[in-house]
Amino acid sequence: MSEKRKLGRGAKTLLIGGLVIVIALLGWMLTPNRTPDDRTPALTSAPSVKAKKQTVQASGDTWAGLKAAGVPEPTDGDMDHAIPLKDGKAVKGAAAITLDESYGPRMAALKTLNALMDRNGDNEQWGLNVSATMGVDGAGASHPAGDAPRYWFAKRSFNPDSLCTNSGDIKGGAISTSDNCVDDVWNTSNEDPILTAPYFIDATFPVPSDLKIDDLTDPQDVVWTDYGVVYIPMNDGVWTFTEYCPASADGITAVDKSNHEVPVDSTGAYWPKNQGTFSFGTKERPCKTVEYTVAGQRPFWYTGK
User: Fold this and answer.
1) Residues of the chain with pLDDT > 70: what percent?
2) Domain range spanning residue 30?
C-alpha cells in the first residue's frame, strides 16, 4: 500500500478557505429577504477631506498614479464581467462577457490607489481626488483615511514579491500565497499579483439598522456578500482595500452591457459575475473603497489575531 501524502501548509489553507466560502455561499443563497425593498443602507457621501467639489480633476492620463508606482494598468481581467440572461435565467453554457464599464471591487480599489499615487495637481486637488473614490460602509458610517503626507505615498511602489515576504499582511482573506512563491519571488506568469477575496474569514462587518432578517439568522451571514477585499503588494508590504458595493446590498441582479441596472427579464440583460467576489457595482451604484490599510495595519472589520 502506498504511503499517504500529507497536504502542505498552502494546500491546507486553500482547502479550508474553499470550504468556508462554499458553506458561506450556501447560507447566503438560502437567506431570505434579500430584496431591494428590504435593504436601503445609507449612501450619503462622507469625504475625509474638505467637501467643496467632489468632482475629479483629470490629470491628462487616466492611470497616471498607477504608472508612477509601477502598478500594471487595468486589463480585461480587472474589468467587470457578466453572463447573458434569457427570461431572467442565465443562458446555459454561455461565456461571460466583459462589460463596457466597470464598477466592481477590483476596479474601485485600483481607482483609489491610482488617486493616492497620482503626482499631478496641487495637494488640495489630490485630496479631493482621493476622497472621490471613498465611500461609506453598509451601515452608513465613514472610516478615516490614512493621514500620511503626499510625499510618503509618492515613495511607494509596486512589488509582487511582497506577497511572499509579507504574506502575514493578508488578514483572513481565504487566500494561500505560498504555492505561487519560489525563494520569496512571486511567479507573476502563473498568477496575477493583485489578489481579490470575497471577505475576511475573521471579520465583523457593520450591519444596517434597517436590515430585515429573521431572529435565527446571523446578520454576518447576510452582509458579508456586499463587500469585496483587494490585496495589492507594494514595496512596504501588502495593502488591503475593503470595498462596499451598495448594488449588491440592494439585491440588484441584472445589468446591461454598459453596466446600467435593468430588470432581470429585460432583453440584453446580464448577470454580474466578478472575479473572486460575490459583490459587484453598477453605474448607478458603484463599489467604493471604505477603508485601505497599509503594510500589515489591522483592517477595521478584522477580528482575528
Assistant:
1) 78
2) 9-42+59-293
